[in-house]
Amino acid sequence: MSQKMENGHDDGQTGVDTFDILIVGAGISGINTAHHVQKSLPHLRYAILEGRSAIGGTWDLFRYPGIRSDTDLPTFAFAWNPWRESQCVAGGASIANYLRQSAALEGIDRHILFEHRVVSASWSSQSQRWQLVVQAPGRTVSLEARFVVLGSGYYDYEEPLSPQIPGLYENFKGTIVHPQFWPEDLDYAGKRIVVIGSGATAITLLPSLAIKARHVTMLQRSPTYIMTIDNTLGNSWYHKVLPRSWSYWVDRMFFMVMINVSYHCCRAFPTQARRSLQSAVAKQLPPNIPLDPHFTPLYQPWDQRVCFTPDGDFFEAMRRGKASVATGRIKTTTATQIVLTSGQEIDADIVVTATDLNLKIGGRIRFSLDGEPIDLADRFTWRTTLLQDVPNLGFMMGYNGFRTVVPRVPRGSHMQRQSVWNVDAAYVREAQSQIPRCGDVGPWRGRSIYAIDRMRAAYGSITRDLEFV
C-alpha cells in the first residue's frame, strides 16, 4: 500500500495529499503526539514527516561516546509504554530502540514518511489549511493539513552552536569535534583530549572518553552542580510484591516526586542545598583535585540544571587518574595547547566543543501566514503549546468542532516577556531571539511544577485567550 493511500487523501481539487494532522519529527514528541491522536481522535488522518531515515530524533542523531539521557527514564519515557530496562539513566542506543519499539507497538511507524524534510509551511486563511513544501528523496512534495504539530525539538539539527574560543580554529593543529556531529572514524585511543564545557554533555563525555584516551581534561569557565545517582532500577521491595505494571507506575511517580521535591527544597533552602551537594562531591574527589574552584558554582542550586552522574562514573574516572578538570577563561589556543588567562597550559590532541546547542524552534522551516513571513520566536506561547496569532500550529491536538484555533493576547494587555526555560544557562540567554517567549499571566505562563501543569492540562480552560472559527 502506498504512503499516499494509507496516510492521506487527495482533496479532489488541487491534487495535493491532504491530512487532518501532520506531525513534524519522529522523535519522542512526535511519537507521543501520534499516540494521543490515534487514541483520542482515531477518525482523523495523520502522518509524521521525518527528515532523517530513522526513528529517534536526538537519540538517533547524536553518536558521541557515552551518549545518554540527562534525566531519569521512568519519567522521560511514555506513560502508555513504561520504561522496562534496569538502568535509570540509559544510553542513546537503548532510548532509540525503545522509541522504535513504542512506534511499532501501536502501528505508528506505518504513518511515518522518512526522508521528508519540511522546507516551508504557509497558512492559507482561504482554505483554512497549512500548505507544506517538503523535500523528499529526489523530489519536492506538496502536502496540506488542517493542523501541524512541531515535534522537531528545540535546536538546529544542521548547525551546532559555535563557541568563540580565541585561536582555536586559526591555530590549533589537532582535531576539533562538536558532539552533535561526532565522526564515526575518530580514533582517540591514547590521545590527550580537552572537553570544553561543564554541562550534561561534557559530564557524559569525560568518563566515556577516559576509557581509551591517554587523558581527558574538562575545561570549564565556571562549575556546575553535579549529583551522583544510583542507576539501578528494579531492586526495590515493591518490584518484588507488586505486578510489573504497578511497579513501573510507582517508579514513574517516585522520580517525578523526588525531582520536584529536590528542586523546591533547593530553591527554598539554597545555602543548605549547596552545602549538601558540595559535601557529596568532596567525598568522591581524589586528593589532587580540590573542591574549590572546580566544584563551587557561582549560582545557587537549580538556577541552572543540576547534572547527574550515574553511579558516580564522572568522579570514578578522576580517581583512576584518567581525567581531570580545569577552571578558568581561555586566553588563546596554540598548535598543541589551550592557554588560560591564569597561565595554565593544557596539552591537547583533540578538542571537543561541548558548549551546548543552537536553539531554534521549528528547525529551519520557513513559516508564513497568507504569504507574509512570520518569526515564531517573536510570539508568546499559549500553555507552552500554541503560538500567539498563529492558527492550528502547536505541539498537541485536542480541538473538535472548529476548523481553526488561534491564540490571541487580549487587547490592552501589559503582559511581561519571560523565558520558556527557567534556567540561567549561557546558551539559553544567547538564544532568546531564537525561541518563543512565555508571559506572566493566565495561559501564557510557562511550565514549572509537573503536578500543577498536569492539573492545568487536564482541568484548565481550553478557551481562554483563544479564538475559534
Automatic annotation (TrEMBL):
Signal peptide: none annotated. The keyword Oxidoreductase applies. SUPFAM superfamilies: FAD/NAD(P)-binding domain. InterPro entries: FAD-binding_MO, FAD/NAD-bd_sf, Flavin_mOase-like. Transmembrane segments: none annotated. Keywords: FAD, Flavoprotein, Monooxygenase, Oxidoreductase. Its cofactor is FAD. PANTHER family: MONOOXYGENASE, PUTATIVE (AFU_ORTHOLOGUE AFUA_8G02570)-RELATED. This is Flavin-binding monooxygenase.
